[in-house]
Amino acid sequence: MKLKTSLLCMGAGALFSLSIPMNAEAHAVLTGGTDLKGYDATIITDAQGTTILSTKKGTYELQSNSTIYSSKDIKITLNNSQPITINGIQAAKDLEFRGAGELDVTTTSDVAINVGNHLKAFKYSGNGKVVGTANGTGVKVHNEIQMKDGTVEGYGNNFGVYSDNDIKPYYGAVLKGTSENGIGIYAYRDIYAWKGATVVGKGKISGARSIIAHIQAEDAGSSITGISTNINSHLSALHADKQMLRAYSGAAVNEVYENSGLVITDNPFVINQAYKTVGRNMSNIENYVWSSNPKAVAIENGGLVVNTSFKDGQITAVRQNAALKKGNEVTQLKKDGRHTVTFSGASTELFTTLLVKHWVDLEDDLGYRLYTEEEIQVEVGDLVNVNMLQFDFTEEEMELDSSDSQDFVAVKSKEPKVINFYYTGEL
After folding, report:
1. Helices (H) then strands (E): counts for the chain
2. What is the pTM of this model?
């Protein structure tokens, strides 16, 4: 409420009144003890930089310890010009967001944004951003998540984003869920991305998981990406329990195994058999096009091999049509749908053989004769110090006469590289 105080002023013989506006009271800080009861709420940033939430029943200040609670369906319009951080949102029924502002909900409690029914984030208008960060689950929704624009992000130790029903983003919507130790995005039913929407889940157990239905991206520009930080998890980066992973009409489903620790040796590596996480959505590696950075991978004898230029880097497998070279595939692709599997932090352990021969001349006119030989395995790319390969004649009177090799970098070879040492003296 504003009051006006009037002053009588004299000037040039004239008498006039000057009105000065004054703030008579500050708004109460909104807490979880206040039920907004479903009245439409608008959040703004006032001229003093304070964030204000208003309904037709009241006006409140939002601070970092504020909680928005409504026992009925509620619509919140984010018209704030500056990002605002609060402590929680508890919506007993539907929660709808509109507007273009940014709202961060950060709490040390189990759930940051808890929705009793549907979450309708920028479904009807607006392209704002809502972020929930909590100890357990960032964003928890007991029915559907519906989006047509804007961004929703959830961060939690167990789940980033959790839905007891479907997840349905369309068009420009972006949904992200991250869990340090759990599942990035969890849905009991479908996880969709339609008409250009983006879904990204990241977690130690799985990037994204559907219990009874699809993980499905459809229409050009749509993508669902699951990032796993543990390739040895019991769940895949994108894990549909009913094995319904799909990409249709130019959309993409992407699996990323981050810091995979993938090690490729000399033997052809059948990666989908070595890791159950990979094999769940990839039946045969020959149905995929493999590439790497640096460029070094190929398929030989049914397995993955790399040439000696690859030491550490990223390996990617892509399949983009329904035609298969071998067998069947679980992941369903139609009309240029694409399935990509990426392994970062890949490395090699490639070895080559050195055959080291030691020849001795005992000065008996018989010349050099072979004293001993040994095979040594060295890793490709390592610098071989030839002098370190000399035979130890400490207890004999033998001296190195010569060697036919100098220090070199080990390269892969089908035949052992022979190194000869020649010694003279007495045994």
Report:
1. 2, 43
2. 0.85
